[in-house]
Amino acid sequence: MKLKMILMLSLLTMKAFIITAQNHSAAVSGLVKDKNTKQTVLYANIVLKSATNQKFISGTVTNEEGRFTLPNTASGNYLLEITFTGYKTKTQKVFVGTLSEYLDLNTIEIEEDINALSEVIVNSKAAEVSSKMDKKVFSVADNITQSGGSVLQSMQSLPGVTLNDGKVQLRGNDKVMILIDGKQTALTGFGNQSGLDNIPASAIEKIEIINNPSSKFDANGNAGIINIIYKKNKQEGLNGKVGISSGYGALWERKSNLPTIRPQYQMTPKMNPSFSLNYRKNKINTYVQADYLYTETLNKNEFVTRTYDDGTIINQQTVRNRNTHFTTLKTGVDWNYNDHNTFAFSGLFGSEKIIDNGDEPFFNQDYSDRLRLWQFLEDELKTTVMASASYEHKFKEAGHKLNAGINYTYHREDEKYFFTNIMPSFTGKDSFKLLSDEKVIDVNFDYVEPLKYGRFEAGFKFRNREIPTNMQFFPGQNSPIDANAGGWANYKEIIPALYSNYIYETNKIEAEVGLRYEYVKLQYDVNPNHPTYKSNGYHYTEPFPSVRFGYKIDDQNKITAFYNRRVDRPSEVDIRIFPKYDDAEIIKVGNPGLRPQFTSAFEVGYKKNLEKGYFTSSFYYRVINGTIIRIATTVPGSTLIYNVFQNADESSSFGIEAVYSKEITSWYSFNINGNLYKNTIDAFTVTNLYPTPSTYHGEEQEIVSGNLKWNNTLQLNKNLKGQLSILHLAPDIIPQGKVNSRFSVDLGLKKTVQKGKGEVFLNATDIFNTLVLQKKIKGIEFNYKTKDYYETQVIRFGYNYKF
Description:
The chain has two domains: about 25-110, Sandwich (Immunoglobulin-like), CATH 2.60.40.10; about 235-800, Maltoporin, Chain A, CATH 2.40.170. It contains three helices and 45 strands. Mean pLDDT is about 85; it is low at about 1-20 and about 115-130.
């Protein structure tokens, strides 16, 4: 692509999202000694001043050990002034950056009868966007148009984030690691994104996006990390919040059913009561949070036309009516044993009950003959239990600490599937049952030592993960189910990892260099009677370096550069050997021969602070080796399509992301956020082994795609705020095909009541009902086109009260 075109298009895709961010602050500490005797100086006066006007900022005295700490010091340059009887005033330059929460000045020596004064430049300013290099932080409460929905829905307005088939994508890539409070849990999946659509946004305080994770994080997830932070009140005493929201979706029928099938859901109800309670007193903080989310959803309403090379044309529809009950309970206690030692214990329980009822009719080309009617019932219960314990030791120097923690997760999937296969000459009834118990133990040790110009980090992580699964098939009359493919399998994974990071920061320069070393051993034992797959696994020992650099041109302008290497390990579901219906004639099955894909990522960014606004932009490039994709093939004599994960060859992505935000008046502000990228999948050849070997050759694919989001916020009066959001998604490529463009418009209102303690809201998503998912897929001897009129238009309303 020509550079001129990229630059021109980037101006059209400048963007931003309303972000709640505070001034970065840090604790400044040090040790005062006599220069000649090297003895510590007790009770010396410490004063921090603004160098531009010598204004007093904060002060303290050294303790019995000669140490001092100045907490909550805003980022910028200062004069640190030390005075003590018999000693001359000592003044030195101090710069507080944005990369560390602690700044250790180490030893400061003062002399008798010496008078020296030096100047310092001060640079302290508010930042609407987090100025840290590593992440962007977004308040869920600011997203008025998605209030009352799920975490997944609230993410779709964030910069660089898009949703595709229920999965989160960062910059067009769905290999995203999802964390909850900084940890991987089965609630959102280890290596996948399960459960996001069933976590209520009412439980979440903020969402962090980390496009370029440091070596401190697990190396999995080449697109980056999304960290979901649960609410946790820090006020003294007893306080809490209660709320209730409701709504309706699928307000009218977008496209009528094909003949002879059950009705699709309309006017689907939603309900989300929530409750949180927190008590903080002296050394103890306890909390409990409970959320319940009930939804009825038209989860899928897809119309498909399949065309085979022999001229056969099949028309079909898939209607999935879904009922979901999701309950979460989170509780914990923080115990500040003393000034240097803190213990924390927490537990989480999650229960997700999903019932899907669906119909899938098949007709000939002119709909004159119904060839088949496939009806299904899926009954799933997912249960998650998580327990965590952590210990933090604070050394004498502020910010010098050691953390240790252990996290245990248990996750059960109990799934039952029932299918009625209505053919012209017979009716068959099939079923199968899947039981999976996931047990994960994570242990971590993290060490942080603040330095005069940054900090040093190091740590050790260990994970032991085991997932025994069992699937049993119960075929009926003339069933296409392969009963021999059932049985058991056991997934075992251990991952020890070491990491270290060095962070350096001055008035002009921000830098971080890190290295993570991981050993991974995966053992996958399978039923020896399986007709295709045998026991398989893999192991590797790999380095994952990360480099980040920032240069502050002046107070308003800053440039950054990043590099990291990451990996995407196949999830257990990706290699699961059991065939499972995507629909009546599309079977998905895992591939135990699947291997990790490795990614090298590069990025250069620029940020400019404006009066009542900001602009940021970044160019990024990713190259992936052993790209993981799902390939669809057929076998001779059958119309069934088999979707199997495979490692293709190389793929790459090059793009620009930009943010522009501006407060025009006291009552109106807007932001535009956009992402323009070019995706390329190189030519490749793979062989699907199940149920019999079938070779597929894919030609090189490439496309220029992107998304544009325009968010408008209006402060209609002191207590009433409105929001209008517009989203456009450009066409994009997928393995063997293409996704067409989409757009939507969302509206929201929020009003504070009861002297700020209460809040009511009303919003509507996809008000023009335009967010239709369209795909084109090309396989061997067939192709198909789909249009999915799933539920996107929802009206929600609710009330929250703080006490």
